[in-house]
Design goal:
Blueprint lengths: L1 H20 L5 H18 L11 E5 L2 E5 L10 E11 L2 H14 L3 E11 L5 E12 L3 H9 L8 E8 L1 H27 L3 H33 E10 L15 H69 L2
Parallel strand pairs: 3-7
Antiparallel strand pairs: 1-2, 3-6, 4-5, 5-7
Helix pairs in contact: 1-5, 2-6, 5-6
Amino acid sequence: MLKRIVFGMSLITLLLAGCASARAPGSDVLHEEVFGERESMDQSMAGAPMEAPAAEYTEGGNGYEAVNTSLTSSERIVLTNVNLGVIVADPAESMKAIGKMAEEMGGFIVSANLNQISLSNGEEVHQGTITVRVPSEQVDEAVNFIEEQSDEPVEYKNIDSQDVTREYVNLQSRLRNLQAAEEQLIEIMNDAYATEDVLSVYNELVRVQEQIEVIQGQIKYFEEASSLSAVSVDLIPEASVDPLTVAGWQPVGIARDAVQALINTLQILVNVAIWLVLFVLPVVLVIAIPLLIIIYILLRWSKRRKRKREMDAAEAEANEKLP
């Protein structure tokens, strides 16, 4: 029995080593992405995920070995993300329209935020951001709908597509090997009698099952993210980008910059004057008044002494002239 357990554990070790060597280079990053979005996808996805191409396996000397399979262009796993910035009259209404559009397409709202900001003229306006997921085959239609929310040109539009087919197939290969290792560990644990052997196999089984769950989550993320593209939109209020207007005339170019610079300069001068009147002047008065009083007293005292000296000198001169 001990020899059988040792042989089984050695076989499992070889299988796990094969899984580690086939690990996708970006799987650590993907692990973080999985747990950030898989929960919302589990609750919001109504349709079945796209069917993934399965890798084929044959028995080999070390258990199971993956057989490379070629994927057609229609089976490629591509993740598409779109970022848009549009100028709209009412960000709140546009946010509602975009969310409704995503739901009608069979997608869902990932996040939505609406904030109130103050413009330089004191006006309070709303600006918003919304992220939705829509079916990948309808992403162009969704982008066109969002662009139609504004009469202004799009501020910016970024489309990022990433082909993760290789990583997806590698994950399937690792999953199949880990599942084979799991079955063998269960069989060995069922045949073991010694408590020490059972605990050793059980700990290894738990570790393998944890890896299986992580990889299954990554595969599910790839499948759902490739079938539903993410579209993020910044909704910019029109009031925040309105051109400067002076008496109905809209200066452009250098004239506009000059007028804006003049306004800024006058604003700085007014701010300085307010500080001088309300802060600097009272401080100066508090310090200067006692100094002025002291200086005034010293000057009067000096004049009196000078006058007394002159009077004493005149009296002495008069006394000298007397016979």
